[in-house]
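Hey team,

Filing this mostly as a record. A colleague (T.K.) asked me to run one chain through the structure pipeline before their review meeting, and I want the input and output archived in the tracker in case anyone asks later how it was produced. No errors, nothing strange. Just documentation.

Input sequence:
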Amino acid sequence: MAKMRKVLAVTMAAAMTMSMLAGCGDKKTDGTEEQTVQSTETESGDVSTETEETETSEAVTEEENSQVTDGDVLVDLNFDDNDTDGCATYFNGGQAELLNENGELCLDVTSTGKLDYANQIFYDGFALNQDCVYELSFDVHSTIERALQYRIQINGGDYHAYVMDEAMIGTDTQHVSTQFTMSEESDPAPRLCMNLGHFDGKGDDSTPHKIYFDNIKLTVVDASKAQQVESIPEPKIVNVNQLGYKKDAQKLATITNESAKTFDVVDVATGKSVKTGELGDWHYDSGADLRYTIVDFSDVNAEGTYKITVDTGEESYEFQVKDGIYDDIYKASVLMLYDQRCGTALDSAAAGDFAHEACHTGQAIVYGSDVAKDVTGGWHDAGDYGRYVVPGAKAVQDLLLTYEDSAEAAKDDTIGIPESGNGVPDILDEARYELDWMLKMQDENSGGVYHKVTGEVFPETVLAVDETAQMILSPISTAATGDFAAVMAKASVIYRDIDKDFADTCLAAAQKAWKYLEEHEEDPGFTNVGDIVTGSYSDGRMTDEYLWAAAELYIATGDESYNDYVKKTVKTSVKYGLGWADVGYYAIYDYCMNVKDCEAEKAILKEGADDLVKNYGKCGFGSATGGEYVWGSNMAVANDGMLMLMASKVFGDDSYVDYAADQLNYLLGRNPVSYCYVTGYGSQTPENPHHRPSEVLGKAMPGMLIGGANGNLQDPYAKAVLADMAPEKCYVDNAQSYSCNEVTIYWNSPLVYLLAAMK
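Output structure:
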């Protein structure tokens, strides 16, 4: 087991900045999407400003005692500065405003909603040590007689309380105080909450009122038995692809101990070195804040299990050299999409412990109306159970390109989904499951496409079959309609020789969507409406979606009006990417592969790929991100690999392939935190993803690509344990860290493409 870095609770509390993030019940809000590379819409709040990070020096050894001492005041809020002192609010059906009034924290309530936590004040920025005794105290009064629930809770998963009680409050100020022992494992990022929603039979809270707080304190009473707060495992000094390498593949390892002088590639079976060499040419990786050198052992091509050692005593994880190294993980990455299927029973033969009966089988209500519509099916998007057209379209496109660009994937009808053996490649069967759902999301009259189907709020940490909230169809958006038009046109080409009727349906739907787009070019980007707080996937600039739709429709129909649109648009400013928001490279690549007159488009593709090659030289671990590690950075790494492979196909230049392969090597272990970022694979794999089924069942669904390093520290847990880390090292395997450790279908889909290409 890797040695664990121990971080002092008092140090973390001081290092953390206040987090304006979600409260009990998981809440996504706008503002988490785009930075240098595209991130996911996940259960978060405001984006914190990206700052330059350096590795923390606050670590202590495992043997050192906790420095938490009796009398330490971990939370001390008196509001005398006429500010809210880092407190924030979460709403789930309630309405209120948080302010400072006469030197007290005041919640001005206009509606208590239906839940006890419909209105919540919360505070982050402290830690709890196991077996330590604490006292929580505060002063409170209200303009009416009503109930209050106060709690300190885990800030993720099931949000259970470490301590919780209720009090009746009124116009007289009362001092509330309770002592408790932290009986669970130490938590570096809990949350202090005041729940001020509706409490049945406990006062009349139906009228507008105000609640006032002062002198909120959390004090250490007895630290004699306090345990340390565990943080992140120490990374390896020698990092490799933990699955291994094909016999004829380029094989690189990264070493980060500058005292080392020599290395050996050791055959684990015999214990003998099969290659020895000297280290040199040390460089600096700013993203990881590390000095490094790279070892090339590509000439080790005999099948076997190996490890790399250095003369200072460190060694890599074991890895294999053999062909077919990615066969199993490829199947698992596709089966993850099957495991995310909605509206159908999952077969235990394919889904294992994640099998379940059909979920979300009721009709959805079109927002703002009483119209009910059947939109069953599709994939659950991420760690929650929402279904979104925009990211779904990216995932489908990646699968369709996998089918086109990989001969092995195109033939594979044995992955193990229920459709296996039907004579249709499984990658197309899986893509069609999402396409069938997307067709239901199109409005029959206008041709526009509803943006998403979710409940008003995110579900609790429950299984899919236990989310029973009414599903709501959010309004039509041009982003969803443009992405829909593109993938439907693409599908009409792919499926024409497999199911002509389905292909015709897809093409007709794409053309109908294009007509909607033509009539709504001035529409603004999507924003959430009403009380809906699920992921918005908003995108304020739709030029790239229109370009993608036009390119695919031209390829599908040969209609020159679509080609005219492409030629006109590539001369303008377009967002080129392979994410859910920036989709321009999808248009460019397919256009280059299918249209002869494409010199301008080839130039765009080549510029993008060559920029990635330049970035590659800045990283000691193979990543081409250029040192940018934001929410969903592993999607960016996988997308970069896709783009390089696209360039290789368009230009016939195999040099791009090795760069692409190193993006996969990075994801599978050759990175500065020494994680194979795909669940269930590698020597060190994420075990605690922010993913409801995995959290409920207590085991990680296999084959999921985790979000990865995020230097912006966008959740309380990341702020607590990763403060002062370099961006490329800002990863923690904890379900509470949704900004590092969530999963999505559209992170897995470029992984599928990469794995298929490298098989």
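Quick notes for T.K.: The first strand starts at residue 4 and ends at 7. Confidence is low (pLDDT under 50) at residues 1-65.
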